[in-house]
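Treating backbone geometry as a discrete language has practical consequences that deserve illustration. The amino acid sequence and the backbone structure tokens for this protein are reproduced below.
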Amino acid sequence: MSTLIPALNTCVSRMTTGERRLAERLEQKLGSNYLVWYDVPVGPKRLHPDFIVLHPRRGLLVLEVKDWKLDDIRQAGKLSFEVAPEGVPRSVINPLEQARQYAHQMVAALTQDPQLVQDEGKWRGMLSFPWSYGLVLTHITRRQFVTAELDCVIDSQRVICSDEMTETVDPQTLKSRLWNMFPALMHGMLSIPNIDRVRWILFPEVRVDADADMQVSLDIPLDLPDTMTVLDIQQERLSRSLGDGHRVIHGVAGSGKTLILARRAVQLAKRVTTKPVLVLCYNEPLAVQLASVIASKGLAGKVHVRHFHKWCREQLVSYGQALPVSTETEKLSTAKLMEAFVQRLVRAVDKKQVPSGQYMAVLIDEGHDFKHEWLKLVVQMVDPDTNSLLLLYDDAQSIYERHRTRKFSFRSVGIHAQGRTSMLKVNYRNTKQILDTASRIAGTLLMADKSDNGSGDEDDGIPLLHPVSSGRVGQEPTVVRMPNLQAEALKIAELLSAAHFEGHAWGDMAVICRHHTVMDECAKVLEERMLPHQVRKGLGTFDPEADTIKVMSMHASKGLEFGVVALMGVEEVVGNAVADPDEARLFYVAATRARSKLLITASNSKPAQPVAA
């Protein structure tokens, strides 16, 4: 089967009967190395060809689809037709000419990229792979086409008729019909990197900017980048297929879940509505970072990105509800205070003192760290008219009360996503070496435990996904054993300084620790060495955009990523990983924050003050 983008079941409602029939044939009859886009906006001019078909060896094909019956065509010319499909005559462009114009505008955009054109010979300056265009007449047979002399105004070789796209048509016959539309002189093929370049130029929404996590500019820059980073095909298909209703994405670390969530938020923000979109995160630094990205797009008024517990407090304040206060005999800890916010909000919503349905859509990152009652609360905040909910989940990164997933189903908290659940298994963030190291320490953490899914419904329970490397290779992680914590900190300062000398920005580095005492020791040495840094503790100020080394706990690092990551003071974590699955999860989460370099130091020191936030 070919890959149809978006998924067929998400775009049927906007297809004509003929378009749906063609989509089914292209999906079923073409092979797995074919990509097919339906009604996807193309290039800076946002063209909307009906179908685009891409094959590495065959090339690029634009198809226009018409559901006209023969009687609907009153006059036919090489430039224009007069048709009356609803009984009212109107003049339209010759549909094959329309496909030709779409194709030429796409080719004009692609030839701006020197890597996609021939640089010598007779065809210098032209695309280095075949391209063409064609027409599909879904209600006109080949006999009718010839009898009506439509072949006088439409090249018959560039047409597929209704009797040539039946359910019983032989796959090879359909392929031949498609590729006979190409001029015989066109040769060449597309490499995987060049397919990504084609997608980067034609489909701006799939562009990935590593600095901002999103790149939605529609323009083609004058200076094209040497390397064009795009969503992979599964990510693009999923991103374009997210309709309304409840949807769940299960994805391994580094699979692009948050990137898809951010793009979804931007798409939703373009709708005309009086209600905002709500994005919730468990991890406060991730919420700050996502909010910064959304604000940079000028969408902060339409997309509210919040740390879950801060959002609960905001709701209580906004609707005049009393906040929990400490008594003289009991001073509430931060954790107890945050939980008190949640419980008060739950009661206020139940009593209708805080309204439900406040948001056009709700998007939840890190759903694996939300308690069941939290999810039940948040589901009620979705406007029932849109019923738009997106939940991102990775049980391998569930580092808070893992037992909560046992005997859990999404239905039990009001999430109805059966048939709308997707899985992302490929890790793109980490090099193979980093992922292998994290997985070795994690051990049995990444082995599915059937007892964890008690719902009896695989589509409604919690699968434990094993990450698959994207194949990106890099340096082996640097592992250093030192005599004490101070020596560890000195070594980390030395290694980070070397990484900066190699070209890594300070702001793309992090030191991730299990304990506050380790964080303090690290910060002390960084201060002495005059290396720019900020320490993240509690819910204090955190600036993800600052060009500083981030010193944080393993818990606080969730959802973030950095080019260079140092794990300090991991002796106890690694030593306990086999006996304590929670410690294995912590190490796995922390290690998979690194994109390029992972530095690990350990000593026999016994730090105190374990941290959980």
Q: What stands out?
A: Confidence is low (pLDDT under 50) at residues 210-217, 401-405, 448-458. The longest strand covers residues 594-602. DSSP finds 17 helices and 23 strands in the chain. The CA atoms of residues 78 and 152 lie 8 Å apart.
